[in-house]
Amino acid sequence: MAFTLIPTNANAFLVMLFLLSLSSSIPLSYSSIQQDFVMCIVDNSDASFPMESSFFTHDLNASSFKLALETSAQNLRYLMPSSPKPEFIFEPLYETHVQAAVLCAKKLRLHLRLRSGGHDYEGLSYVSEIESAFVIVDLSKLRNIDVDVESNSAWVHAGASIGEVYYRIQEKSKLHGFPAGLCTSLGIGGHIIGGAYGSMMRKFGLGADNVLDARIVDANGKILNRAAMGEDVFWALRGSGGGSFGVILAWKLKLVPVPETVTVFTVTKTLEQDGTKLLHKWQQVADKLDEDLFIRVIISPAKTSKSKERTISTSYQGQFLGDPSRLLQVMQKSFPELGLTKKDCLETSWIKSVMYIAGFPSTAPSEALLAGKSLFKNYFKAKSDYVEEPIPIEGLEGLWEKFLQEDSPLTIWNPYGGMMAKIPETETPFPHRSGTLFKIQWLTLWQDGKASETRHMEWMKDMYSYMEKYVSKNPRSAYVNYRDLDLGMNGKGNDAREWGNKYFKGNFERLVKIKAEFDPENFFRHEQSIPTELE
Question: Which domains does the chain have, with CATH numbers?
């Protein structure tokens, strides 16, 4: 592995100055916790760290703490003043710091929350509703990327964004890529561990299906690779969701071939343009299209051209691993109803196609992927579904009625089939494979915080209930990277199967068994972490 550690002697004088500033500016009880943690990190790590930019506490520097807490958090629902706040935030610079953080948290009985990109939909990487005293270990400064084109692989630290990974791969080779997320600010640590779907999933499967190795810190502070952790734990890491088995330090990714020319397009239809009929047809063909073709549908209310009334807009956004000529042949054969023309097609490179789908302006340079920060910050509630039979016309029409009752609803339908149907559902914890036509992401967004939260949450509950008869059953499945605490939570008297079976189907009990053997004290835990036993 190419990552290197530069050991240095901890600067005791600077540490003492920092601890003196802690003790003189905050109450003794808080000061003691923070001082003990800092000294423990120094004692258990062979690499020093700059205190002011690695350790953040509200009591010592409220503005820096606020920035560190909020900079990558996506869901503003969990950043309100009433939301629980961590005792402090620690941003490791080296792997040895992560080891020390685990050891020290265990010694001081502090609960850890682990964050790589901050995209957890229920804020579980930066908020805890079940632990009164918790700390955040933020991995955003662990972002080394080492691409080896000759071996078709790359080692990637957990704090790197998926956009950075794409950029570094293409920096080395225009004919290599990786099949992962559509949102380029995702932290790859948490992204891969939940499955990681993207626009090449029908060709190559999920990101988690293309992982060769991993490095984690276990509950004893030891760094383990695939050989050391064993195949059961390595299996569990590829789809079980973050925060259950250890701290992901890095993934070894298997690169995949991409063509020199990739074609992208977006075709938008409203209800007045036979949008409902077209979407009904898409459901019947999307999972059966050429594996080089991915067409998702983005659905939301929109203003009509002739009045202030709203309609429903359906935007068909596609990526094709090939040139426009072959794409048009495929579309004419398999989905002529969309009416795709050469004028709709943009011929580009793979890296530019990624940026197109992510919503970057056409003039943005590929270096924009290195920013690694998302501009998406909203109060929102999200849910997910999997569909195994096409939703009938009348079902869609009822859904449009629901959507037109809400201020800013959004749903994105992602096609399955292709490679996703060929991989057995027990190959990884991610079970949504053969038989799935498409996945649905549901969102409702608002901007006025608590003022209208109840109304929007009730709308989501009502819409989700309406859709029950049209989606997967026994269980009604969900995607673990779209966390949804409505499905159930860990806790005394609660049956984890309520949510576990929805995320993992028959793989859940195997995950519980592996967890019990690997982390029997349940050190790594949160509201929906894999439990050590079932009630």
Answer: 32-138 (3.30.43.10), 145-258 (3.30.465.10), 262-348+378-477 (3.40.462.20)
